[in-house]
Specification:
The chain has 82 residues and is mainly α. It has one domain: Arc Repressor Mutant, subunit A, CATH 1.10.10. 62% of the residues lie in helices and 0% in strands. It contains 5 helices and no strands. It has helices at 4-13, 17-30, 35-42, 46-59, 76-80. α3 crosses α4 (46-59). It is globular.
């Protein structure tokens, strides 16, 4: 399990804003704020905060990093202008 110090260190070492937001939300919950209140403050659904908590508990803090994905889908009309 991780401590508040571990989370704070991860927040300060992260350069990605989304990752920092997830870690800060986790830190607030760890310090006693309810997941519902944290969700309200960060403008996300409360189930999202619960999902972040479960993922961090199961896979560790590094699981909250942004994952590479598909990216932005370019429409056919946009392709013709390139």
């Amino acid at each position: 399990m991780f401590t508040t110090y571990d989370i704070a260190t991860a927040v300060s070492s992260s350069c990605n804003k989304n990752e920092q937001m997830r870690l800060q939300a986790l830190l607030l919950v760890k310090n006693g704020l309810s997941p519902a209140k944290v969700a309200e403050d960060f403008l996300v659904h409360r189930s999202t905060v619960h999902r972040w908590i479960k993922r961090a508990e199961k896979e560790g803090l590094f699981s909250l990093k942004c994952k590479s994905g598909r990216g932005v889908k370019v429409s056919f009309k946009s392709r013709t202008t390139f």
